[in-house]
């Protein structure tokens, strides 16, 4: 991978950018619109949102603004959203998809995900995603926060295999077993909260590696993700930080440095446990 437009081929041959912009906890408003448009202006082609973020309208505005400023087309972009647990179910998920699409002001999504593996609900939702995929309304479908047993259960009845599993992943939660399983099944792993919501930025081992390359700790973590074959979507609303997060293609971490970062794992989450959540 050489730049922000470099892509990975998903299971069905669709190309997804390795690096994108996440907008979790970014409220509707001009700051959001500007963050999305500035990401596009600075070379990003992948934007990740979700129904529960309640910011799809602003993301849509930012996409439109970014396209106008750069002259790129909708086909150049890769836009992701997710169905929330309250809307899991066949008809409910179809309806939720249409709602998200309308808020974003788009004619299709590139990726639609089941946000959390709500027991007794996600299989019907997956059937809805399969329908949307067959109808050409979404180019790829996947899941988020699914553990191995959730994936196995889903695939017992699925006609189409998930193409993505978006999970919490950072140096304190390396999820090696889950990654190995997904790779074996050709499910692309995508990291959310790759920077552990800022909790790793003064980690001594990471600071030391960052100083060697004259990079930020955030850039070191993003590079670690990419070298592990993980798609990643760091969040920022500041243009200089968005640019910095994308400037990770001019250095390569050594095997020893990769191992040193892996060794920071504590199986520590900042988000909910996929096996024990109450929403």
UniProtKB/TrEMBL annotation:
This is Aldo/keto reductase. PANTHER family: 2,5-DIKETO-D-GLUCONIC ACID REDUCTASE (PTHR43827). InterPro entries: AKR, AKR5G, Aldo/ket_reductase_CS, NAD(P)_OxRdtase_dom_sf, NADP_OxRdtase_dom. It comes from Niallia hominis. Residues 30-265 form the NADP-dependent oxidoreductase domain. Pfam families: Aldo_ket_red.
């Amino acid at each position: 991978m050489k730049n922000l437009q470099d892509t990975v081929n998903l299971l069905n041959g669709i190309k997804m950018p390795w690096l994108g912009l996440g907008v979790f906890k970014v409220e509707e408003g001009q700051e959001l619109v500007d963050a999305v448009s500035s990401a596009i202006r600075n070379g990003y082609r992948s934007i990740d949102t979700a129904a529960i973020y309640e910011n799809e309208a602003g993301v849509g505005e930012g996409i439109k603004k970014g396209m106008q400023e750069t002259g790129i087309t909708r086909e150049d972009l890769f836009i992701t959203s997710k169905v929330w647990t309250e809307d899991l179910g066949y008809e409910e998920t179809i309806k939720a998809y249409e709602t998200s699409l309308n808020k974003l002001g788009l004619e299709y999504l590139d990726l639609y995900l089941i946000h959390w593996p709500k027991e007794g609900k996600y299989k019907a939702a997956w059937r809805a995603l399969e329908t949307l995929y067959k109808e050409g309304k979404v180019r790829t479908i996947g899941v988020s926060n699914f553990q191995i047993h959730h994936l196995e259960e889903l695939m017992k009845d699925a006609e189409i295999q998930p193409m993505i599993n978006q999970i919490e992943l950072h140096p304190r939660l390396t999820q090696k077993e889950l990654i190995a399983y997904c790779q074996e099944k050709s499910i692309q792993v995508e990291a959310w909260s790759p920077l552990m919501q800022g909790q790793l930025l003064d980690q001594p081992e990471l600071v030391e590696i960052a100083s060697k390359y004259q990079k930020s700790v955030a850039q070191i973590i993003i590079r670690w993700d990419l070298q592990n074959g993980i798609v990643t979507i760091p969040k920022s609303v500041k243009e200089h930080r968005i640019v910095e997060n994308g400037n990770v293609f001019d250095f390569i971490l050594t095997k020893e440095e990769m191992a040193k970062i892996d060794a920071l794992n504590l199986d520590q989450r900042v988000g909910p446990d996929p096996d024990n959540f109450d929403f």
